[in-house]
Amino acid sequence: MTDQPTRTVTRSEDEWRRELTPEEFAVLRRAGTERPYTGEYWDTHTTGVYQCRACGAELFRSDAKFDSHCGWPSFFAPLAEERVRYIRDATLGMERIEVRCAACDSHLGHVFEGEGYDTPTDLRYCINSISMRLVPDDTTVDGDAGSAPAAP
Ligand SMILES: [Zn+2]
């Protein structure tokens, strides 16, 4: 076992409740699960970085996202191993590994191993869309659209 990363963002549950929407709070702070195929990012292929919706820590990159057809955004690896922490979760009568944001300890989803997906790690980080915010790489605005022609 390696040392667990240190938590850097600490807020009270009341503060989280004020900052997050009820839906975000239910997943991030109460380890809820959004319904499959309903989240914002399950079928997203945009290039960019997925941040923690609670604290903004960068968690996953789009180049590690793959089509698992499970109804949730799926990644084969986090952006960096120290960005997430793992907790054994024995609820629902299953042994699962919960994935949390290392910075603020918010619930992200679960990681599953050995499912046979054609990915470099054989891991599936099954993450709730509502736990993340996608920041596309190309955020520059197209300046040509409304610009006036140059004066002679
Ligand atoms: Zn976080």
Q: How is this fold's topology laid out?
A:
Layout lengths: L12 H7 L2 H7 L19 E5 L5 E4 L3 E2 L7 E2 L8 E6 L6 E6 L5 E7 L9 E5 L4 E5 L16
The site of zinc ion has 8 residues, from loops.
Rg, alpha carbons: 18 Å
Q: Please give the CATH class.
A: Mainly Beta
CATH homologous superfamily?
Answer: Peptide methionine sulfoxide reductase
Q: What is the CA–CA distance across the termini?
A: 68 Å
Percent helix among the residues?
under 10%
The CATH architecture:
Beta Complex
Task: Report the structural category.
Answer: mainly beta
Any low-confidence stretches, pLDDT <50, length ≥5?
Answer: none
Number of helical stretches of at least 4 residues: 2
Tally of domains: 1
What is the CATH topology descriptor? Answer: Metal Binding Protein, Guanine Nucleotide Exchange Factor, Chain A
Order of helices and strands: HHEEEEEEEEE
Mass-distribution shape:
globular
Mean pLDDT score, rounded? 91
| Distinct ligands, ions and cofactors found in the model | zinc ion
Oligomer: single chain
Q: Strand order within the widest sheet?
A: 3-4-8-7-6-5
**What is the count of β-strands?**
9
Largest sheet, if any? 6 strands, antiparallel
Portion in strands:
25-35%
